[in-house]
Protein backbone atom coordinates (compact mmCIF):
# COMPACT_ATOMS: atom_id res chain seq x y z
CA UNK A 1 0.00 0.00 0.00
CA UNK A 2 1.13 3.54 -0.71
CA UNK A 3 2.50 5.36 2.29
CA UNK A 4 2.78 8.63 0.42
CA UNK A 5 1.65 9.88 -2.97
CA UNK A 6 4.28 10.31 -5.67
CA UNK A 7 3.99 12.26 -8.92
CA UNK A 8 4.01 9.09 -11.04
CA UNK A 9 0.96 7.68 -9.25
CA UNK A 10 -0.83 11.03 -9.42
CA UNK A 11 -0.21 11.37 -13.15
CA UNK A 12 -1.48 7.80 -13.62
CA UNK A 13 -4.65 8.79 -11.75
CA UNK A 14 -5.18 11.77 -14.05
CA UNK A 15 -4.61 9.53 -17.07
CA UNK A 16 -7.15 7.02 -15.74
CA UNK A 17 -9.73 9.79 -15.43
CA UNK A 18 -9.29 10.47 -19.15
CA UNK A 19 -8.94 6.99 -20.65
CA UNK A 20 -10.41 4.63 -18.00
CA UNK A 21 -12.98 6.62 -16.00
CA UNK A 22 -14.91 3.51 -15.02
CA UNK A 23 -11.82 2.23 -13.20
CA UNK A 24 -12.43 4.79 -10.45
CA UNK A 25 -15.96 3.50 -9.86
CA UNK A 26 -14.82 -0.11 -10.02
CA UNK A 27 -12.02 0.49 -7.52
CA UNK A 28 -14.48 1.86 -4.99
CA UNK A 29 -17.10 -0.86 -5.54
CA UNK A 30 -14.61 -3.74 -5.46
CA UNK A 31 -12.42 -2.70 -2.55
CA UNK A 32 -12.22 -5.10 0.39
CA UNK A 33 -14.70 -4.32 3.17
CA UNK A 34 -14.69 -4.56 6.95
CA UNK A 35 -17.18 -4.40 9.81
CA UNK A 36 -18.25 -0.90 10.80
CA UNK A 37 -16.86 -0.97 14.32
CA UNK A 38 -14.00 -3.12 15.52
CA UNK A 39 -13.69 -4.98 18.80
CA UNK A 40 -13.33 -1.80 20.83
CA UNK A 41 -16.36 -0.15 19.20
CA UNK A 42 -14.35 2.99 18.47
CA UNK A 43 -13.60 4.79 15.21
CA UNK A 44 -10.92 7.15 13.95
CA UNK A 45 -12.10 8.63 10.66
CA UNK A 46 -10.22 11.14 8.51
CA UNK A 47 -12.58 13.88 7.30
CA UNK A 48 -11.93 15.10 3.76
CA UNK A 49 -15.27 16.44 2.54
CA UNK A 50 -14.52 20.14 3.03
CA UNK A 51 -13.66 20.99 -0.57
CA UNK A 52 -17.05 19.84 -1.87
CA UNK A 53 -18.70 22.89 -0.34
CA UNK A 54 -15.82 25.27 -1.08
CA UNK A 55 -14.09 25.13 2.32
CA UNK A 56 -10.42 25.48 1.37
CA UNK A 57 -8.87 27.36 4.28
CA UNK A 58 -6.70 26.13 7.13
CA UNK A 59 -5.41 28.60 9.69
CA UNK A 60 -4.17 31.70 7.92
CA UNK A 61 -3.96 30.05 4.51
CA UNK A 62 -7.22 30.59 2.57
CA UNK A 63 -6.25 28.04 -0.12
CA UNK A 64 -4.55 25.29 1.90
CA UNK A 65 -6.91 22.61 0.58
CA UNK A 66 -6.94 23.87 -3.00
CA UNK A 67 -3.97 21.79 -4.16
CA UNK A 68 -5.37 18.30 -4.81
CA UNK A 69 -2.02 16.51 -4.98
CA UNK A 70 -0.99 17.86 -1.58
CA UNK A 71 -4.36 17.06 0.00
CA UNK A 72 -4.39 13.51 -1.36
CA UNK A 73 -0.82 12.97 -0.24
CA UNK A 74 -1.69 14.01 3.30
CA UNK A 75 -4.67 11.63 3.36
CA UNK A 76 -2.52 8.78 2.01
CA UNK A 77 0.06 9.45 4.72
CA UNK A 78 -2.68 9.42 7.38
CA UNK A 79 -4.02 6.09 6.08
CA UNK A 80 -0.55 4.59 6.36
CA UNK A 81 -1.32 4.28 10.09
CA UNK A 82 -3.29 1.02 10.48
CA UNK A 83 -5.26 2.50 13.40
CA UNK A 84 -7.09 4.88 11.02
CA UNK A 85 -10.44 3.22 10.36
CA UNK A 86 -11.45 5.09 7.24
CA UNK A 87 -12.24 8.28 5.37
CA UNK A 88 -15.24 10.60 5.09
CA UNK A 89 -15.29 12.37 1.72
CA UNK A 90 -17.17 13.26 -1.44
CA UNK A 91 -17.18 10.93 -4.45
CA UNK A 92 -14.18 12.52 -6.15
CA UNK A 93 -11.90 11.98 -3.16
CA UNK A 94 -13.19 8.49 -2.26
CA UNK A 95 -12.79 7.30 -5.86
CA UNK A 96 -9.27 8.71 -6.07
CA UNK A 97 -8.24 7.04 -2.82
CA UNK A 98 -9.82 3.74 -3.85
CA UNK A 99 -8.08 3.88 -7.23
CA UNK A 100 -4.77 4.47 -5.44
CA UNK A 101 -5.45 1.34 -3.38
CA UNK A 102 -5.43 2.95 0.05
CA UNK A 103 -9.05 2.19 1.02
CA UNK A 104 -8.64 -1.59 1.14
CA UNK A 105 -10.14 -2.82 4.41
CA UNK A 106 -11.04 0.74 5.43
CA UNK A 107 -14.38 2.43 5.93
CA UNK A 108 -15.59 4.77 3.19
CA UNK A 109 -18.28 7.23 4.28
CA UNK A 110 -19.82 9.36 1.54
CA UNK A 111 -20.85 12.92 2.24
CA UNK A 112 -24.32 13.78 0.95
CA UNK A 113 -25.48 17.39 1.36
CA UNK A 114 -22.73 19.79 0.31
CA UNK A 115 -24.94 22.48 -1.24
CA UNK A 116 -24.36 25.00 1.55
CA UNK A 117 -21.37 26.65 -0.10
CA UNK A 118 -19.15 28.44 2.40
CA UNK A 119 -19.80 32.19 2.52
CA UNK A 120 -22.91 32.10 0.29
CA UNK A 121 -26.11 33.88 1.28
CA UNK A 122 -27.88 30.50 1.04
CA UNK A 123 -25.19 28.69 3.05
CA UNK A 124 -27.58 27.10 5.53
CA UNK A 125 -29.69 25.60 2.74
CA UNK A 126 -27.60 22.42 2.76
CA UNK A 127 -29.03 20.62 -0.27
CA UNK A 128 -28.11 17.15 -1.49
CA UNK A 129 -25.41 17.69 -4.11
CA UNK A 130 -23.06 14.73 -3.51
CA UNK A 131 -24.06 11.13 -2.70
CA UNK A 132 -27.65 9.97 -2.26
CA UNK A 133 -28.69 6.84 -0.35
CA UNK A 134 -29.02 4.74 -3.51
CA UNK A 135 -25.46 5.46 -4.60
CA UNK A 136 -24.05 5.05 -1.09
CA UNK A 137 -25.42 1.51 -1.31
CA UNK A 138 -24.51 0.92 -4.97
CA UNK A 139 -20.87 1.85 -4.50
CA UNK A 140 -20.46 -0.24 -1.39
CA UNK A 141 -19.94 2.62 1.02
CA UNK A 142 -20.11 2.02 4.75
CA UNK A 143 -22.10 5.12 5.60
CA UNK A 144 -23.59 8.39 4.46
CA UNK A 145 -22.83 11.69 6.17
CA UNK A 146 -25.35 14.52 6.57
CA UNK A 147 -24.87 18.09 7.77
CA UNK A 148 -27.70 19.76 9.69
CA UNK A 149 -27.12 23.38 10.66
CA UNK A 150 -30.01 24.98 12.54
CA UNK A 151 -30.55 28.74 12.71
CA UNK A 152 -33.92 30.07 13.81
CA UNK A 153 -34.52 32.78 11.19
CA UNK A 154 -33.39 31.18 7.91
CA UNK A 155 -36.33 29.61 6.01
CA UNK A 156 -33.94 27.32 4.13
CA UNK A 157 -33.28 25.42 7.35
CA UNK A 158 -36.77 23.87 7.36
CA UNK A 159 -36.17 22.41 3.90
CA UNK A 160 -32.80 21.07 5.05
CA UNK A 161 -34.36 19.39 8.12
CA UNK A 162 -36.95 17.72 5.89
CA UNK A 163 -34.40 16.44 3.36
CA UNK A 164 -32.01 15.27 6.08
CA UNK A 165 -34.82 13.37 7.83
CA UNK A 166 -35.70 11.65 4.54
CA UNK A 167 -32.05 10.67 4.00
CA UNK A 168 -31.80 9.28 7.56
CA UNK A 169 -34.78 7.05 6.78
CA UNK A 170 -33.40 5.99 3.39
CA UNK A 171 -30.07 4.95 4.90
CA UNK A 172 -31.78 3.14 7.80
CA UNK A 173 -33.98 1.23 5.35
CA UNK A 174 -30.80 -0.07 3.71
CA UNK A 175 -29.12 -0.88 7.03
CA UNK A 176 -26.38 1.67 6.38
CA UNK A 177 -24.77 3.94 8.95
CA UNK A 178 -25.96 7.56 8.90
CA UNK A 179 -23.36 9.96 10.30
CA UNK A 180 -25.35 13.07 11.17
CA UNK A 181 -23.63 16.33 12.10
CA UNK A 182 -26.05 18.73 13.89
CA UNK A 183 -24.76 22.22 14.62
CA UNK A 184 -26.38 25.38 16.03
CA UNK A 185 -25.77 28.49 13.92
CA UNK A 186 -26.22 32.25 14.16
CA UNK A 187 -26.22 35.03 11.57
CA UNK A 188 -23.57 37.70 12.13
CA UNK A 189 -23.99 41.43 11.45
CA UNK A 190 -23.20 40.83 7.78
CA UNK A 191 -25.94 38.24 7.54
CA UNK A 192 -23.50 35.36 7.15
CA UNK A 193 -23.77 32.05 8.99
CA UNK A 194 -21.44 31.45 11.94
CA UNK A 195 -21.28 28.65 14.50
CA UNK A 196 -23.18 29.31 17.73
CA UNK A 197 -20.76 28.50 20.61
CA UNK A 198 -23.57 27.91 23.13
CA UNK A 199 -23.50 24.48 24.76
CA UNK A 200 -27.22 24.77 25.49
CA UNK A 201 -27.96 25.27 21.79
CA UNK A 202 -25.69 22.36 20.89
CA UNK A 203 -27.67 20.12 23.28
CA UNK A 204 -30.86 21.31 21.60
CA UNK A 205 -29.74 20.42 18.08
CA UNK A 206 -28.38 17.05 19.28
CA UNK A 207 -31.83 16.30 20.67
CA UNK A 208 -33.47 17.36 17.39
CA UNK A 209 -31.07 15.28 15.30
CA UNK A 210 -31.70 12.21 17.45
CA UNK A 211 -35.38 12.29 16.54
CA UNK A 212 -35.04 12.57 12.76
CA UNK A 213 -36.14 9.86 10.37
CA UNK A 214 -38.32 6.76 10.67
CA UNK A 215 -35.56 4.82 12.46
CA UNK A 216 -32.59 5.87 14.56
CA UNK A 217 -31.07 2.40 14.63
CA UNK A 218 -28.19 3.21 12.27
CA UNK A 219 -27.60 6.86 13.22
CA UNK A 220 -24.31 8.08 14.66
CA UNK A 221 -23.75 11.74 15.53
CA UNK A 222 -20.77 13.92 14.70
CA UNK A 223 -20.53 16.88 17.07
CA UNK A 224 -17.96 19.41 18.34
CA UNK A 225 -16.08 18.88 21.56
CA UNK A 226 -16.87 21.22 24.45
CA UNK A 227 -15.95 21.50 28.11
CA UNK A 228 -19.51 20.27 28.85
CA UNK A 229 -19.23 17.20 26.66
CA UNK A 230 -20.83 14.90 29.23
CA UNK A 231 -24.03 17.00 29.08
CA UNK A 232 -23.93 17.35 25.28
CA UNK A 233 -23.39 13.63 24.71
CA UNK A 234 -25.94 12.96 27.44
CA UNK A 235 -28.64 14.50 25.25
CA UNK A 236 -28.65 11.30 23.18
CA UNK A 237 -27.97 7.58 23.51
CA UNK A 238 -26.55 7.47 19.98
CA UNK A 239 -22.85 6.84 19.36
CA UNK A 240 -20.98 10.14 19.10
CA UNK A 241 -17.89 10.89 17.04
CA UNK A 242 -16.18 14.21 17.79
CA UNK A 243 -15.31 16.50 14.92
CA UNK A 244 -11.90 18.08 14.64
CA UNK A 245 -12.36 21.45 12.97
CA UNK A 246 -9.39 23.77 12.60
CA UNK A 247 -7.82 24.06 16.06
CA UNK A 248 -5.13 26.50 14.91
CA UNK A 249 -2.70 27.12 17.74
CA UNK A 250 -5.01 25.40 20.26
CA UNK A 251 -3.99 21.89 19.20
CA UNK A 252 -2.93 20.80 22.68
CA UNK A 253 -6.23 21.99 24.15
CA UNK A 254 -8.17 20.17 21.43
CA UNK A 255 -6.39 16.87 22.06
CA UNK A 256 -6.88 17.29 25.82
CA UNK A 257 -10.64 17.81 25.29
CA UNK A 258 -10.77 14.72 23.08
CA UNK A 259 -8.99 12.62 25.69
CA UNK A 260 -11.38 13.69 28.43
CA UNK A 261 -14.50 13.24 26.29
CA UNK A 262 -13.53 9.73 25.17
CA UNK A 263 -14.22 8.55 28.73
CA UNK A 264 -17.96 9.21 28.17
CA UNK A 265 -19.71 5.90 27.30
CA UNK A 266 -21.35 6.92 24.02
CA UNK A 267 -18.43 9.03 22.76
CA UNK A 268 -16.82 6.52 20.43
CA UNK A 269 -14.08 8.32 18.54
CA UNK A 270 -13.11 11.10 16.14
CA UNK A 271 -13.92 12.37 12.67
CA UNK A 272 -11.06 14.80 12.19
CA UNK A 273 -9.73 16.43 9.06
CA UNK A 274 -7.67 19.58 9.19
CA UNK A 275 -6.47 18.92 12.75
CA UNK A 276 -4.78 15.74 11.51
CA UNK A 277 -4.02 16.49 7.86
CA UNK A 278 -2.78 20.07 8.35
CA UNK A 279 -1.53 20.17 11.95
CA UNK A 280 -0.36 23.52 13.25
CA UNK A 281 2.89 21.93 14.40
CA UNK A 282 4.53 18.60 13.66
CA UNK A 283 3.80 16.07 10.95
CA UNK A 284 0.64 14.39 9.69
CA UNK A 285 2.01 11.09 10.98
CA UNK A 286 2.58 12.46 14.50
CA UNK A 287 -0.88 14.03 14.70
CA UNK A 288 -2.56 10.83 13.46
CA UNK A 289 -0.58 8.65 15.86
CA UNK A 290 -1.54 10.89 18.81
CA UNK A 291 -5.22 10.73 17.81
CA UNK A 292 -5.01 6.95 17.30
CA UNK A 293 -3.55 6.48 20.76
CA UNK A 294 -6.45 8.45 22.24
CA UNK A 295 -9.14 6.58 20.30
CA UNK A 296 -7.82 3.03 20.21
CA UNK A 297 -5.11 3.07 22.87
CA UNK A 298 -3.64 -0.33 23.61
CA UNK A 299 -6.38 -2.14 21.68
CA UNK A 300 -4.58 -1.66 18.35
Short account of what is shown:
The protein is an alpha/beta fold and 300 residues long. It is 37% helix and 17% strand.
Task: Describe the fold and architecture.
This protein is an alpha/beta fold and 300 residues long. The protein is 37% helix and 17% strand. It has eleven helices and nine strands. The protein has helices spanning 7-19, 22-30, 68-79, 91-99, 133-138, 156-173, 199-210, 229-233, 251-261, 274-277, 284-295, and strands at residues 43-48, 86-89, 107-111, 143-150, 177-187, 193-195, 219-223, 240-243, 267-272. An eight-stranded parallel barrel has the order 1-2-3-4-5-7-8-9, surrounded by five helices. Helix 2 crosses helix 4. The longest helix is centred in the middle third of the chain and has 18 residues, at 156-173.
- Side by side, the strands of the main sheet go 1-2-3-4-5-7-8-9
Q: What structural class do helix, strand and pairing data support? A: alpha/beta
What sequence of helices (H) and strands (E) makes up the elements? HHEHEHEHEHEEHEHEHEHH
What is the CATH topology assignment?
A: TIM Barrel
Q: Rounded to an integer, what's the Rg over CA atoms?
A: 18 Å
Task: Count all strands and give the number.
Answer: 9
Helix content: 25-40%
Number of domain units? 1
Q: Based on the structure given, which CATH architecture is correct?
A: Alpha-Beta Barrel
CATH superfamily label = Aldolase class I
Q: How can the largest sheet be summarized?
A: 8 strands, parallel, barrel
Mean pLDDT: 95
Oligomer: single chain
CATH class: Alpha Beta
Beta-strand residue percentage: 15-25%
Uncertain residue segments: none
End-to-end distance: 19 Å
How many DSSP H or I helices? 11
Shape: globular
Amino acid sequence: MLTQLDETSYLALITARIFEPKSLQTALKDRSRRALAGKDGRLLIVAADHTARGKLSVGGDPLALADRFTMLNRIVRALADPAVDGVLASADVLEELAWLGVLEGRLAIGTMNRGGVIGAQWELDDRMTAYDADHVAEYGLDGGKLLLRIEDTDPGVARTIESVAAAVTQLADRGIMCLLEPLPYLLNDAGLAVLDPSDEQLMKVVAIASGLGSSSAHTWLKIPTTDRMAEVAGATSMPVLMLGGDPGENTAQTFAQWEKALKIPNVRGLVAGRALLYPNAGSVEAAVRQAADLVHGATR
